[in-house]
Amino acid sequence: MTLPFYKLQIAGNGFILFDLLPLPESLKAKSALHPDNRNTIARRICDRRFGVGASGCMFLEKDNTLTFYSAQGIPAGNSDDSLLCAARYAFDSGRSNGQKILFKDGKQNTMRVDILGANDFRISCGAPFSLLKETVITPESKDVNEVIESGGLECAYGAVHLHENVIVASPGNRGFFSFQDFAVLVHKAFPKKKVLPVIATPVTENTVLVKSNPKGMSGACSTAAAALCVSCCAGTTEFESMVMFEQRGDDGLPDNMLAKDTDSSRRIAVYWDYKEKERNEIYVSGSGAYVFEGKFDIPE
Q1: Which residues in the chain come in under a pLDDT of 50?
Q2: Which Gene3D superfamilies has this protein been placed in (predicted)?
């Protein structure tokens, strides 16, 4: 069986989308497309050597039911990056409803995406949670940062959970760590957890540059939200900032990043809503971008 697909990405994190609307019901009823077998399809197409290669896979139904699978074929719940990619496709294909897009997951729970513009969509990442203290983080939280020491250098970091576990090297570090060295230290410090190491550098009160390798279904959104959270608690950024993802060849220069970001997929805007104590939620907005479309052969 040959199926058409789209590959989209946000901040370099790629996903496969199958739109099942154009397919005839007789084809959908075949065993290869049965919901019980979609994990196999996801695993095959996400394989980076024998498939297309991606962090995850999505199946979009006629009624806007959207189901997510990781690259290992495991059904995924929190899938912020892929949701922003799906929103871009849904908007372009006329599935939006006014100022929002409503998706349903496999359990018929509603997932809302606000439409801010043609290539600008917003979702909530929830409240930030401290991995170290196991408490909810607010801008008033103290001692968010801990210190890693290696080779005479000290690195301050904040450990935040926002759908993914993110370890952010915070501003004001004494000494210098490369991203590779910091990643090694992070994985040693959290040996039993899946974590995303991030180096965040505030450029202005409203701009943060990050070095990271956002993997997983929510890697880019969680990275951006955690970078803002840690920077806000350090007093170096405002509650609303643009997080830009540094790529190879950018040399840490915002102008170089903006010049390459022709489809606005390399940046994520983050807003920490904490005007009142009972409100504590971080929102991210951005857009997935098309990489290519193609066809994939799946065994019957």
Answers
A1: none
A2: Diaminopimelate Epimerase, Chain A, domain 1
